[in-house]
Please model this.
Amino acid sequence: MKRFWAAMGFLTVLPLPAVFRPTEEDLARSVPFFPLVGLLIGLSSAGVAVVLEGIFPSLVLSVIVVGWLSVTHGGLHLDGLGDTADGFFSCRDRNRILEIMRDSRIGAFGCMTIGGVLAVKAAALASLPAEHRVKAAILAPMMARCVMVPMLGLLPPARRDGLGRMFGKHRSVRESVYAMAFLMTAAWVTARFAGLIAGFAVITVTAAFVYLCMRRIGGITGDTVGAASEINEMAALLVLSGQPISGLWG
Model:
């Protein structure tokens, strides 16, 4: 149970009582609970959408939901997205990219990327009818946390210190398979074929991003894992808002 709370504390800003505060070992072994925490985050964002439906126009409502998703993790993943964008778009060598990513200041590429991703997520949500918007609000954050599991469990860390090293001590192919099965099952139950298509899209986007990470810095960092979460939330919402799959929702 403590590992579940470790995952909650790592992926959300939920304040934990002292008895549930994890050790580094608890946190390193909490990865299998990431999909469940992602589902809970999704259910909370869907709750926001349901409560405010009819009170605000769809675009305003969607901005609020996207803002809620950002608040749940305290902007940590957005910070990783900005740092990753600053480093990867700098066109420098590996060591310099890692230095840029470690810098707490955000640059122009980071600002543009964060703003663009948030705008696309809000626009995609706003384009959906109310019933589908609620389902998309559940699926997107859940899928984004599921893909963290194989990234942390299978890929080498780009640095000798940091999150990649800590989570890498407990690599498990089984946990990665479980996370992908959880993703696709939840996608099917929630949105049928539309959910499956979004799930395959998220896995494909993750594979492409992992390839880029390996090429640019030789592994993953906490920043790139956070960036993957934000990118995949956007990818899931984009696919779910697409006209070609509008008739495939369950």
Remarks:
- The two ends are 33 Å apart (CA to CA).
- The CA atoms of residues 87 and 97 lie 5 Å apart.
